[in-house]
Design brief:
Blueprint (H helix, E strand, L loop, with lengths): L1 H22 L47 H4 L4 H11 L3 H13 L4 H21 L5 H21 L12 E6 L7 H12 L3 E6 L4 H10 L4 E5 L9 H11 L6 E5 L10 H4 L3 E3 L2 H11 L8
Parallel strand pairs: 1-2, 1-3, 3-4, 4-5
Helix pairs in contact: 1-6, 3-4, 3-5, 5-6, 5-7, 6-7, 7-11, 8-9
Length: 297
Amino acid sequence: MASVIEGDVIPRLVLAHRRAAVAAGGVVAAGRPHGQRDPRCDLDGRSGALGGNAGGPGGGPVNRPGDGMTAFEAARPDADVETFAHLILSNDMDRAVALLDDRRARGATFEGLCASVLGPTARLLEAYWSGDACDFTDLTVGLGRLQRLLHDLDHEVAPERALCDLNHRVLVSAVPGEQHTFGVSMLSALFQRAGWHVTDALVVESFEDLVAQVRDDPFPLIGLWVGGPCRLPGVATGIDALRRASAHPEARILVAGPPCAAPASDGAALGADALAETAPEAVARAECLLGRPVEPN
């Protein structure tokens, strides 16, 4: 699996990224066209899918376009997260696994590791790329390594929840245009471990692909993952199409991902029933939407 990801999948993603950059009129260098605005800049001009950064892999500041410091720039992440991100980027996987094992030995659950280490590390890698501290290849390879760790942990750590009734069925997908699958893969894994019956679409080319699925299958819940603010503008139209096509008369729609933490995020404007910044938070919100609240991990 690792050789397939790094030998085939990642080169394809990098090539697609470079072609998109050239089509936008830039010159590819170090993973992003020189002078091209970070494509995840939000609508009011602030940069980054995370709303800030916490310094580059070398320990120095990450320079960003835009004025002022955001909340993430003002607050450094957990030291373990910075260490873990550096281990991932340097492919020191033995030490990365040892860090996770240490947390597990101290009582961390799979859900807790997602919330405190894996998810924040993915967001930090995105911040490094957004600030030119690493290139698109580094980001893609790093997220691929995180995904392998997520997969291994999911198989090593037994779930604590029994399978729910068939009313707890969810269709999980990234919004069209997402290039990386780590966030939506984590969302899917957490839903499964919480006892949900999960159908994975993961990555789709258009909302029409999802419309076809919900038209034929009455999912009570549709979970959409959005990695960057630039993906938000088309989400409202897509959600409207999903509602009109859904075979379930009271389908709930949840949108999750880092952009959902922004002050301007508005579930009603998107047409969503709930928003969540992280995958663990999304599962808790979904439980409440369907009337089965759970204690947070």
